[in-house]
Amino acid sequence: MVLGQKKALFLDRDGVVNVEKEYLYKIEDFEFIDGIFELCRHYSHRGYLIFIVTNQSGIARSYYSEDDFTHLTNWMIAAFAQKGIAISKVYHCPHHPKISAPCSCRKPEPGMLLEAQKEFNIDLAHSIIVGDKERDIEAGLNAGLFESYLLDETTQTQHSKATKIVTRLKDIWKNNVNTQ
Ligand SMILES: [Mg+2]
Ligand SMILES: [Zn+2]
């Protein structure tokens, strides 16, 4: 680990921070997933910075606007702050390759993680990503992360490139030898 570098906990948003609802942008539809605050506290207490990295192709599709997204994001960050949790930054990809243009930020591309690395001097090799889709895990691998968790509450997923498939967020940090 290079001196001065910080570790990061990267969280996908929809399906990890909040219950997945297609093209969500309204505060009243935003429902935190059980265990998200405990997960963040666990890693925050261990010196990890917390980032949210989220594909938001609903913007490219004009289902909602950048302003709608920002409005919800500000509310979400305040909700975390009320629980004593600092979200260092929320990165989003507003693109869709078939509607706007191909980009380097839409997961599985690692662009958002690399941006955080530059802005906050992150030690990517010792950082963690949590996602509910394989493309989240792949974004982590593409950025050089070694530790990743696929959250699948349905328990249907059999195969993943993730370090571990979990059915609840607390399974990531409870009794996890990697993070002691
Ligand atoms: Mg997701
Ligand atoms: Zn993008």
Secondary structure blueprint with pairings:
Blueprint: E1 8-11, H1 36-45, E2 49-55, H2 57-60, H3 66-82, E3 89-93, H4 111-120, E4 128-131, H5 134-142, E5 147-151, E6 164-166, H6 170-173
Parallel strand pairs: 1-2, 1-4, 2-3, 4-5, 5-6
The structure holds magnesium ion and zinc ion (ZN).
Structural commentary:
The structure is a single chain. The protein is of the alpha/beta class and 180 residues long. The protein has one domain: HAD superfamily/HAD-like (Rossmann fold, 3-Layer(aba) Sandwich). 30% of the residues lie in helices and 16% in strands. The chain contains six helices and six strands. The chain has a six-stranded parallel sheet with strand order 3-2-1-4-5-6. Strand 1 (8-11), helix 1 (36-45) and strand 2 (49-55) form a beta-alpha-beta unit. The longest helix is centred in the middle third of the chain and has 17 residues, at 66-82. The mean pLDDT is 95. Bound molecules: magnesium ion and zinc ion.
Shape: globular
Q: What string, H for helix and E for strand, traces the elements in order?
A: EHEHHEHEHEEH
Count of DSSP E strands? 6
The CATH homologous superfamily is named HAD superfamily/HAD-like
Q: Give the CATH class.
A: Alpha Beta
Feature tags:
Rossmann fold, 30% helix, alpha/beta, binds magnesium ion, single chain, binds zinc ion, 16% strand, 180 residues
Question: Outline of this structure?
Answer:
With 180 residues, this protein is of the alpha/beta class. The chain has six helices and six strands.
